[in-house]
Write a structure and sequence with these properties.
Blueprint lengths: L14 E4 L24 E7 L15 E2 L2 E2 H10 L6 E5 L3 H7 L6 E4 L7 H14 L4 E6 L7 H13 L4 E6 L2 E2 L3 E4 L3 H5 L8 H6 L3 E5 L21
Parallel strand pairs: 1-11, 2-5, 2-7, 5-6, 8-11
Antiparallel strand pairs: 3-4, 7-10, 8-9, 8-10
Length: 234
Amino acid sequence: MTDQPGTRSDGASARRTDGGPEDGVDGANDADGPDDSATSPRVGGVVLAAGLGSRFEGGNKLLAEVDGRPVVERAAKTLRRSAVAEVVAVVGHEAERVTAAVDGLTDAVRRNEDYAAGQSTSVRVGVAAARERGWDAAVFMLGDMPFVRPATVDAVVAAYARGDGSIVAPAYDGRRGNPALFGKRHYDALADVSGDRGGRDLIETHEDSVLVDVDDPGVTRDVDFRADLESDAE
């Protein structure tokens, strides 16, 4: 997948914050706080798992295995083990097989019939699910990123809950990564994106976008080729 909600870059235009989830939600900034939530925000997770993965050799990369488990299963499990309230998977290419791979790890599965038109179509489906389920914010997890730690998702959610920003992405060793969180005030903008841009422009240009520094190299590792499946790769 390319140009996804938090595609790797140096993220120079975003503010930086630390990834300390232990700081909790107290002391949120009035200007940058969660989107109109008087109590702890309700944050859900979306697994984007509809794409063709055309650069991958030999089959659907989401169903390729890392340490004996499908890539997309590991991505969904990261969200399931994190602080998000619910998990929704968006499927398209080989929908039945991908759905089976995340069985038991999601609260709902949504099908994107237009997946061939680019990743933005899956983001749009995810935004619709977030609205329908009443989420204050959505974390978009890429289905081809099997090495992200649940604690990283927790750090992103905690930064949002503290009021650090309404768009939050992790950064490792100076590089922006995924998953990325978008508060509900950005749902309209996300739904209007076309092609494969995802939420990249929002992350790079919005004044309320922040990066959370994390000790997790998995945020910059996706699977495009078979060599990327090595769990101990640098």
